[in-house]
Amino acid sequence: MTLIPPSLEIGLKPGAEYDTVIKLFNETSNTISLYTEVTNFSAKGETGQPEFDFGGELIGLAKWINVEKGPIVIEPGKRYEVPVAIKTPVDADPGGHYATLFFSSSPPEEGQLRIASKVGTLILARVDGEIKEAGSITEFSASKKTFSSLPVEFTIRFSNSGNVHLKPTGKIAVKNIFGKETVSIDFNASKGATLPNTVRMYQATWDKGLIIDKSGNVWSDFWQGYSNEKNNFALGKYTAELSITAGTLESVKDTAKVGFWVLPWHMMLVWGLLAVLAVLLIIFLIKKYNAWILKKAKSQQ
After folding, report:
1. Sorting pLDDT into bands at 50, 70 and 90, what band is 265?
2. Rounded to whole angstroms, how far apart are CA atoms 267 and 36?
3. How many Å apart are CA 246 and CA 134, to the nearest integer?
4. CB atoms within 10 A of CB 245
5. Does position 48 have pLDDT exceeding 90, yes or no?
6. Is residue 20 over pLDDT 90?
7. So what's the pLDDT on residue 112?
8. Are 18 and 12 in contact (CB under 8 A)?
9. Taking 70 as the threshold, does the pLDDT of residue 190 lie above it?
């Protein structure tokens, strides 16, 4: 079954009703019956994954949602539009409110453990009023200080200290030792949200080509490292500069920097040895040439 939309971001006015529809498509060859269930959700850890409070007391937005309970019967290959009404109380707190509308293959039963397949729409609501948009970067780091080749993985932690969810976006400008920009990396291109009063971890990567990661003997591992450095070449000290904005009018802005080195030691060792051999060969040839010149000069005397 396909559900549209998987997430819904809406604005609500205190004392007003908001109406929308959720579209369900039955792509199976069987008739299905679905039941609705509304739950609260919050952020689970720092990964941005939602945590659903099944069986918990409904609060805020979850209490304001009115939707038919079911069963909703959908024939094979057919679609069904489910009306959803959200009645916002007059005294609703301004800012972010969050809930999930699930469609389940089994009816919800209070006090019992239920095993059923579920699909749902995340609803992120913003209630008008005294909105506070505030946040900052609490961490911007590279996974190591020194790399032998790309990729370089960055970790960004963003703290939302406001009362509404934020979707920080921006760029990571990687500059070489001379201050010239080497690459620009999109930050949070998928626009993942950070909920109020939480910290979310985002990740970004600077990479180029395919990385081979197979364990073998010391000899094969060395040449595997050489190949990875050649395909993902970078050399020297780099500085990554992160600039982000968030909020309806980009009112939240912040920057951060991190430095790191890329030293392709497999390549440096191989080419260093080749350079030494080349120098030794040149010295040998010069000596041979000088000896030949001396020998020729003596034969002409």
Report:
1. confident
2. 60
3. 9
4. 15
5. no
6. yes
7. 45
8. yes
9. yes
Least confident of 7-16, 79-88, 177-186, 227-236: 227-236
Angle in degrees, 0-180, between the axes of helices 265-299 and 218-231, rounded to the nearest 10: 90
Find, among 167, 191, 156, 20, the residue nearest to 96 by Cα.
167
Compute the distance between CA of residue 184 and CA of residue 124 in angstroms, rounded to an integer. Answer: 31
Q: Return left, alpha or beta for 258; rule: phi > 0 is left, psi -120 to 50 is alpha, else beta.
A: beta
Q: Is the CB of residue 26 less than 8 Å from the CB of residue 1?
A: yes
Query: What's the order of all strands across the beta sheet hosting 152-160?
Result: 135-142, 152-160, 198-206
